[in-house]
Design a protein that fits this description.
The protein is an alpha/beta fold and 411 residues long. The chain folds into two domains: 138 residues, P-loop containing nucleotide triphosphate hydrolases (Rossmann fold), CATH 3.40.50; 260 residues, no CATH class. It is built from 16 helices and twelve strands. The longest helix is centred in the middle third of the chain and has 23 residues. The radius of gyration is 22 Å and the shape is globular. It starts with 5 loop residues before the first helix and ends with a helix. The N terminus is likely disordered.
Length: 411
């Protein structure tokens, strides 16, 4: 089999095939969400094709058209013209429009049968409660993530399978992703100087523009302090009381601000799995960053790297309609812990323990938790093992696997 030229394939996104399938089969709107600069606009426009019509709320002329109402936009997009294929309208950053919900509802209810609609946003399109009727049943969400190992190796994936078959691997995509992150532009540049400038600008946009423009929060400086504390506590249990003391705010405010940082794709949290686990923790979440490259500690970066890949998998599988998938961690009051548990349709499916080095025996906690949860697979994923072209998911007992081998079988 011919080796995969991963550096060339990295410019193509797996989401294009998924969205094209949606546009060909479903009438509901596409809600494409994800962090700033993850590639939403390019993916939406590429998926819409040459006949797609593009409007951006941040562009003055487009904003004037949108505020004129759904009929004006539909006319401009060609929804009133008979065509061989329904035209596709891309509405970029539409969530910044205060009346975006009622606008989309009117556009879809009146003109949705004559065209297809893709709405994109850097924050979750359904988080801001600004009134208007519910859009339930009128859209399907697709959550876009940074580049991952499998997407770099081969962006064309099977849309009806969760686990992908093994494939050859050339180069070192894991090391490049660890160094430059998974956001397309810095990853493709492969330049430390460019990455440093890009990262600084992205942080400034989040805390000076997004928070100011899309929320009523005035304490941006304190939220920035909170974000810096979370960077240093990545992979650890969130202690709201300690954070409240250090940021000089209430515990309830800490919970609310952490939710805001999650909504803007700065970080994400996972919660413990406690069913069939004696004396399990039940409430405290663990926090990780969307951009793992911001972490200086190698161990924390490795764990966050795998967490981000697993979050991408469960979002993809769920959004593609393959089932209901969730990500958890395992920990009991006696200190036994496994980094991650992936569940499928409410049942434990596989466990992952992350190790920077393979020079340790397989964690006995993997065996303990596999037995107690009934998970089908248990992986100890090591970063210093070379890629092996083999199906990890053919093994039922706890096994040490290369990180690249495991992640290459996901999305």
């Amino acid at each position: 089999m011919r080796p995969v030229p991963w550096r060339v394939a990295a410019v193509q996104r797996i989401y294009e095939g998924l969205i094209r399938e949606h546009l060909g089969q479903e009438r509901q709107m596409v809600f494409l969400t994800g962090p700033r600069q993850v590639g939403k606009t390019t993916t939406a426009r590429t998926s819409a094709g040459e006949q797609g019509h593009y409007l951006n709320w941040d562009r003055q002329e487009d904003r004037v058209l949108i505020t004129r109402g759904a009929d004006a936009v539909a006319q401009q997009a060609g929804f009133a013209t008979l065509a061989a294929k329904p035209p596709v309208l891309v509405l970029d950053e539409i969530h910044k429009y205060p009346k975006w919900k009622s606008f989309l509802k009117g556009l879809f209810d009146t003109h949705g049968g004559n065209g297809r609609i893709i709405a994109t946003g850097s924050s979750r399109l359904n988080i801001f409660k600004r009134g208007g009727d519910s859009l339930m049943g009128r859209y399907f969400p697709y959550r876009m993530h940074p580049l991952s190992v499998r997407e770099i190796l081969q962006p064309a994936v099977s849309l009806d399978k969760d686990i992908q078959p093994p494939l050859p691997c050339t180069g070192d995509p894991v090391q490049s992703l660890l160094s430059y992150g998974g956001f397309p532009e810095p990853f493709l540049k492969q330049s430390a100087r460019f990455y440093n400038r890009w990262s600084s600008l992205r942080t400034e946009q989040l805390f000076r523009e997004d928070l100011r423009d899309l929320t009523r929060i005035q304490e941006a400086g304190q939220i920035h302090v909170l974000s810096e504390l979370l960077v240093r506590q990545t992979g650890q249990l969130v202690n709201y009381s300690n954070l409240a003391v250090r940021v000089n705010a209430s515990v309830d405010t800490m919970r609310r601000w952490l939710g805001v940082l999650e909504s803007f794709y700065f970080c994400f949290t996972i919660r413990p799995w406690f069913r069939n686990v004696a004396k399990s923790l039940r409430k405290q979440p663990k926090v990780y960053l969307w951009d793992w490259s911001a972490l200086k500690d190698p161990g924390a970066r490795h764990e966050n790297f795998v967490a981000s890949h697993l979050l991408k998998e469960i979002h993809w599988w769920t959004d593609a309609g393959l089932g209901r998938y969730d990500l958890h961690y395992l920990r009991d009051k006696e200190g036994r812990e496994v980094d991650f548990l992936v569940s499928r349709d409410g049942r434990p499916w596989f466990l992952v323990e992350v190790k920077s080095s393979s020079g340790v025996r397989i964690s006995p906690q993997l065996e303990y938790y596999q037995k107690s949860t009934g998970a089908a697979h248990a992986f100890q994923a090591s970063f210093d093992l070379d890629y092996v072209e083999r199906d990890c998911f053919s093994v039922a007992t706890p096994v040490s696997v290369p990180v690249s081998t495991l992640l290459a079988q996901l999305i």
